[in-house]
């Protein structure tokens, strides 16, 4: 396994362990605000820890944005996506093992921080609302990432900008979908939670990928890119 793949695996593990772990293990104590900060902090940690190795994309939707903007090749895209999904699954498994050590924890009753929508999930938002939120939020997230990591962006601040953006997105949308904006983040918990989480998973794959695709196309076309930066070929 390449160093880039290992970095993406560990970085995505950090994202899911911090974010999903905060929801499952500490959600009652820290609430939505605390969970949002945990997701944001995880991105900052991974970005500064692994950004120099792989770019710390940690998200198939982000990698798709890099691919369609011309800043990534197909081979790396496939490798990154596999590593990201495996990292998310591994982190979800670890969170589940820890949560299962509490006497009153039940996967069926308490869940595993999985994404969802509709009656019985957080605010009970509709499928359309969930689709719109995940598409728009991912588009904005990937647009920020592409801009913050272009060659003439302020040096050293990319990880902070990206982490704060993810925290802000969570502050807006946890009550809507639990916030995915990342197919890997959704796949990991859903594989263990099963049931409705798996039934809803298509939305948390399709909408983020569509948002990342649009962000990448606009960046590649120069619409959301500094005029001084050329796509990598």
From TrEMBL:
InterPro entries (UniProt xref):
Aquaporin-like (IPR023271), Aquaporin_transptr (IPR034294), MIP (IPR000425), MIP_CS (IPR022357)
Residues that span the membrane, as ranges = 7-26, 32-56, 77-99, 125-148, 160-181, 201-223
What is the first-listed, main subcellular location in coarse terms?
membrane
Show the coiled coil region(s). Answer: none
Protein name stated in the entry: Aquaporin
Asked if the keyword Lyase belongs to this entry, the reply reads no
Record localization: Cell membrane
Q: Which UniProt keywords apply?
A: Cell membrane, Membrane, Transmembrane, Transmembrane helix, Transport
Which family does the record claim for this protein?
Belongs to the MIP/aquaporin (TC 1.A.8) family.
* Record-linked Gene3D superfamilies: Glycerol uptake facilitator protein
Give the species this sequence originates from.
Paracoccus onchidii
Q: How does it sit in the membrane?
A: Multi-pass membrane protein
Cell membrane recorded as keyword: yes
């Amino acid at each position: 396994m390449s160093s880039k793949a290992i970095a993406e695996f560990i970085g995505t593990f950090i994202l899911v362990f911090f974010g999903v772990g905060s929801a499952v293990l500490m959600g009652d104590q820290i609430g939505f605000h605390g969970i949002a900060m945990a997701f944001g902090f995880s991105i900052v940690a991974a970005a500064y820890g692994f950004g120099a190795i792989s770019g710390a994309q940690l998200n198939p939707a982000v990698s798709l944005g890099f691919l369609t903007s011309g800043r990534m090749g197909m081979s790396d895209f496939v490798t990154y996506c596999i590593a990201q999904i495996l990292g998310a699954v591994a982190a979800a498994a670890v969170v589940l093992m820890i949560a299962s050590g509490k006497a009153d924890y039940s996967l069926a009753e308490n869940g595993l921080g999985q994404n969802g929508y509709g009656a019985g999930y957080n605010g009970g938002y509709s499928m359309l609302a969930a689709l719109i939120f995940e598409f728009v939020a991912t588009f904005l997230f990937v647009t920020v990432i592409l801009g913050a990591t272009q060659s003439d962006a302020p040096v050293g601040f990319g990880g902070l900008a990206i982490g704060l953006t993810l925290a802000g997105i969570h502050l807006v949308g946890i009550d809507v979908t639990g916030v995915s904006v990342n197919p890997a983040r959704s796949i990991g918990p859903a594989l263990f939670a099963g049931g409705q989480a798996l039934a809803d998973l298509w939305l948390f794959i399709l909408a983020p990928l569509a948002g990342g695709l649009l962000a990448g196309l606009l960046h590649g076309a120069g619409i959301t890119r500094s005029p001084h930066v050329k796509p990598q070929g």
